[in-house]
């Protein structure tokens, strides 16, 4: 699974639109869409914003959908080997 696929899966698991997530992390909907399509990669600051959003959602028990089972893997190759993982 690519990084973009992981971002999209985690976003949908929380029942969030691209626009809602983009607003929460301070980027445009178009930028988030490019990440999900794997035509662009988020920078480290944006990955950290995604992780912070996940932490906030977990603390508030928030987001729509099921539990926090979706994760975004942060390795540069977009696979699940190495690096930490974040979800939102």
How helical, in percent, are the residues? 40-55%
Strand fraction equals under 5%
> Which secondary-structure class do the elements indicate?
mainly alpha
Average per-residue pLDDT, rounded, comes to 78
* Uncertain stretches of 5 or more adjacent residues: 65-71, 73-84
* Cα-based radius of gyration, to the nearest Å: 12 Å
Distance between the termini: 17 Å
The SSE order reads: HHHHEE
Largest sheet: 2 strands, antiparallel
Brief characterization of the structure:
The chain has helices at 3-13, 18-25, 29-36, 44-59; strands at residues 72-73, 85-86. By secondary structure, the chain is mainly alpha-helical.
Q: How would you describe this structure to a colleague?
A:
It is globular, with a radius of gyration of 12 Å. 28% of the residues are buried. With 88 residues, it is mainly alpha-helical. The protein has a two-stranded antiparallel sheet. 49% of the residues lie in helices and 5% in strands. The chain is built from 4 helices and 2 strands, in the order H-H-H-H-E-E.
């Amino acid at each position: 699974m690519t990084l973009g696929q992981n971002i999209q899966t985690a976003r949908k698991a929380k029942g969030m639109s691209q626009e809602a997530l983009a607003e929460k992390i301070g980027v445009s909907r178009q930028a988030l869409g490019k990440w999900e399509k794997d035509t662009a990669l988020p920078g480290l600051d944006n990955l950290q914003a995604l992780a912070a959003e996940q932490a906030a959602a977990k603390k508030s028990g928030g987001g729509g959908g099921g539990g926090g089972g979706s994760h975004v893997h942060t390795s540069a190759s977009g696979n699940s080997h190495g690096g930490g993982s974040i979800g939102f």
